[in-house]
Amino acid sequence: MMLMEIKDDFTNNLKKDDSKNFITSKHGAGGSIMQNLIQNCFVKNLSSENSWKEKFNVEISLEDLDDGAVVNDTVIATDSHVVKPTFFPGGDIGKLSISGTINDVSVMGAEPMALTFGLILESGYPRNNLERILKSMGDTCKQAGVYVVTGDTKVVEKGSLDGIMINTSGIGRRNSFLDKNIDVVKKYRKFDARWLSDSNLREGDKIIVSGTVGDHGITILSAQKGYDFDIISDVTPMNKVIQGILEVGGVVSIKDATRGGLGNVLHEWSEKSNVGIVVKDSRIPVKNSVKEACEILGINPLHTANEGKIVIGCVAKKAEEILSVLHEFTEAKDAEIIGQAEKVFGNHVLIEKEHGKVILESPEGDPVPRVC
Amino acid sequence: MMLMEIKDDFTNNLKKDDSKNFITSKHGAGGSIMQNLIQNCFVKNLSSENSWKEKFNVEISLEDLDDGAVVNDTVIATDSHVVKPTFFPGGDIGKLSISGTINDVSVMGAEPMALTFGLILESGYPRNNLERILKSMGDTCKQAGVYVVTGDTKVVEKGSLDGIMINTSGIGRRNSFLDKNIDVVKKYRKFDARWLSDSNLREGDKIIVSGTVGDHGITILSAQKGYDFDIISDVTPMNKVIQGILEVGGVVSIKDATRGGLGNVLHEWSEKSNVGIVVKDSRIPVKNSVKEACEILGINPLHTANEGKIVIGCVAKKAEEILSVLHEFTEAKDAEIIGQAEKVFGNHVLIEKEHGKVILESPEGDPVPRVC
Q: Which of B1, B189, B193, B324 is the most exposed place for a label (fewest CB within 10 A)?
């Protein structure tokens, strides 16, 4: 019954998916359809000039499609949050919006300094809920040691928005351990990047995931459908964990495994770094409860969102040391080395299962609507 | 008939205005009710720590409620745009979102470097419209010489958003003429601020508005109501104009007269700078077409939004020179010196009319819903 209900949803989505003329849910789901929209519509229309890049020392920009950009040695990232429901086991839209942007800034190799928020509220929204969300934002800021410096509020008439949506943007400065981290990388292999961008992975680099995958996505889907699985979201700021591993050194790239999950991270790496990737299925940490829920729901936990999980690419010689440091943090106690970048025909992402290696297909997008 | 229709709208709004328990349109309209929400809900819950301010050299933060913030010598500002209709005479939500954030960054005394966007789209939104909006964003970026470096897209299901909403955030670095500008101010009076903040106005400073007021607000209201006034929005980036007047020197504060219009700017200045303000009604530039529309609609053009108008506070001795430079820019050809900061009992904002001075009351918020 449950499985059928979900399948029906997907079928409906596909029927409506006239992605040439209309925007569909897949255009915002972090997969191949969204990448296509970004390239053919956003990057095309928002192209910039080289003189501007030189003037402001723009090192990473829109066309790099990374987690953030780098301008004048400052990292900047932005995210809009439309998660449904607004309050869910383990968090709410407030905690999500603060954590998400802190993580996007941090994974570039920056120390997040400050955040902005843009609130859009529906007229009639209960003030109690707003207070609860703002308190949660404030608590998450305290937890991370990064605060909101400016904001904006808009209210639209009843019926033109369901409840509340929050944009957060954030800026960070070069992490004080980033140069030392890069020096460690250079002991083992050639490395000419200044930031931890998506294109830095090379054959031989190990891949580490900081904990169990799929928790957030399955929590949200359960809440949307009214299922009673015993799963809570992993949403949390990861800036202190990232600081910890940069102190070890040897990290070449970090990604925040949000929409599209771990699978999307691996595909973005293989595409932007031009490498094949092989991960061992048995090493990917997935909670038993999440595994069971995924089987019932017909969803792959590798393709659903996390909000407190990072995926780390590092030189092989430092992988064990980075793993030990990760295990010192509660947020990363389940971290595992799951595989490596290696020569694969067509630069595919391969999953090594008991019976052999299979290609992990790039999904059209996260299977859970409004997951973040 | 028209007047009655508008009045009815206001009466309905007031009846629904249970601002203690529910969010109403006035909470997002840039007036006193919004200020109250910001103080009692946002600033209270999002308070920061002094150690953080010291660590990142946070000079202007959330509690200053300025157009932007200053962190690590970088200005950051954010705005969400929910304007209705999305396309209007003189512009669209794309041009508005780019211009608004460029202006917010520039008025602090910064040179805008880069922008981010956060798009929220309703499933089923026509791709043609999206292309048109992105082209308009791109064109406005080119006009201003400031480009988008990163973005985020979310799609929500049909019925949970009406069409498209856009957040833009922006960062800027200290304008290269700001120090020289401040040196000029110091020739004439004491000045100890490092940025052009709202609290810098002092008795004797002159107030200049860069052009006719109310154009944008009345354009949007006309479009919402289907009236056929011959008015177009003034939406445009003002960074080059601001660059021009900083080169002259003597500017103490600049504000972007958006939601709540010129009136809101004058009230924010009088409150944050603790000064009275007197402006001459006859000197405030208002287009005849806007004046006529305002009379029919029962709206004060001083209280409605502009999107390409700045209000400048400067030392008296430099006012004429600044005015001449403003007149060299098409965007500021109608600039006028409209009054000055002076001793007024209760630090009121006074409008000098033919028959004498009257208090300009602080409105609850912009009379036009979804004006930006």
A: B1
Among B298, B220, B213, B208, which Cα is nearest to B263's?
Answer: B213
- DSSP, res A43: I
SS3 assignment, position A233 = coil
Calculate the CA dihedral of residues A56, A61, A62, A66 and round it to 10 degrees.
Answer: -150
Name residue, tokens 């915002």.
A28
Q: Do B49 and A155 touch (CB under 8 A)?
A: no
Q: Which residues, other chains included, contact A51 with Cβ-Cβ below 8 Å and sequence gap of 6+?
A: none
Q: What are phi and psi of A268, to 5 degrees?
A: -65, -40
Distance CA B46, CA B277 (A): 32
A186 CB-near residues (< 8 Å, 6+ apart): none
Which of B41, B72, B154 shows the shortest C-beta gap to A28?
B154
What CATH topology corresponds to B60-174?
A: 60s Ribosomal Protein L30; Chain: A; (3.30.1330)
Distance CA B88, CA B217 (A): 11
What is the nearest CA distance from A163 to chain B, expressed in angstroms? 9
Parse chain A into domains and list their residue ranges: 1-46, 60-174, 176-363
Q: ipTM of this predicted complex?
A: 0.94
Using a CB–CB cutoff of 8 Å, tell me whether B143 touches chain A: no
**Helical axes A215-225 vs A2-16, angle rounded to 10°:** 100
Interface test with B, best of A43, A167, A195, A368 (most B CBs within 10 A): A167
Write the DSSP string, B168-189. Answer: EEEEEEE-TTHHHHHHHHHHHS
Strands A349-353 and A69-71, by their bridges, are unpaired
Both tokens of B283, joined, read 């000197």
Closest CA to A163 of A224, A223, A220, A120: A120
For residue range B267-299, what is the model confidence (pLDDT) as tens digits? 999 999 999 999 999 999 999 999 999 999 999
Q: Are A102 and A240 in contact (CB under 8 A)?
A: no
Give pLDDT, residue B16: 47
3-class DSSP state for residue A55? helix
Q: Which CATH superfamily is domain B176-363 in?
A: PurM-like C-terminal domain (3.90.650.10)
| Encoded tokens for B216 | 């944008």
Interface with A, mutate which of B10, B23, B366 (most A CBs under 10 A)? B23
Q: What share of chain A is helix, strand, coil (3-state, %, to 5)?
A: 40, 25, 35
Tokens (6 digits) for B205: 């400073």
From CA B77, how far away is CA B168, in angstroms rounded?
8
Residues of chain A in contact with residue B148, where contact means CB-CB under 8 angstroms, are 46, 48, 62
pLDDT, tens only, B147-194: 999 999 999 999 999 999 999 999 999 999 999 999 999 999 999 999
Q: Assess A2–B contact: CB distance below 8 Å, yes or no.
A: no
Using DSSP, state whether B159 is helix, strand or coil. Answer: coil
Cis peptide before A85 (omega within 30 of 0): yes
Query: Distance between CA atoms of B366 and A98, rounded to whole angstroms?
Result: 29
Omega before residue A301 within 30° of 0, cis: no
With an 8 Å Cβ cutoff, is A73 touching chain B?
no
Cβ-based contacts under 8 A for chains A and B: 298
